[in-house]
Design a protein that fits this description.
Oligomer: single chain
Radius of gyration: 20 Å
Protein name: K(+)-transporting ATPase subunit F
Shape: flat
Strand content: 5-15%
Strand order of the largest sheet: 1-2
Largest sheet: 2 strands, antiparallel
Keywords: Membrane, Transmembrane, Transmembrane helix
Pfam family, one: Potass_KdpF
InterPro entries: KdpF
Order of helices and strands: EEHHH
Structural class: mainly alpha
GO molecular function: P-type potassium transmembrane transporter activity
Length: 89
């Protein structure tokens, strides 16, 4: 592995730099992993609210309910878009 020196400091190896540049170039073409990541980040916000609002529930169950709610809302938005714009699908 060759090291890249930026201002006399070791910053990244070439493998790490290549990986980061590959991710940066591919994120516009592959939207599915980005949407999954955003959904998981949104679940981090939703799950504690579900956990606080529901008495006598475990934390893992709260996260599962949060994922289920996000999937349900996402499916509803998708089906609504399919109904309004059927020629795109």
């Amino acid at each position: 592995m060759k090291l890249i020196n930026l201002k006399q400091k070791v910053f990244l190896t070439t493998n790490q730099f290549d990986f980061i540049s590959f991710i940066w170039s591919e994120w516009r073409r592959q939207k599915f992993p980005l949407w999954i990541f955003l959904g998981l980040c949104l679940n981090i916000i939703v799950a504690p609210a579900v956990y606080a609002a529901t008495p006598n529930i475990e934390r893992t169950t709260a996260y599962a309910l949060g994922v289920l709610g996000l999937v349900t809302v996402g499916l509803g938005v998708y089906l609504f878009a399919v109904i309004l714009q059927p020629e795109r699908f």
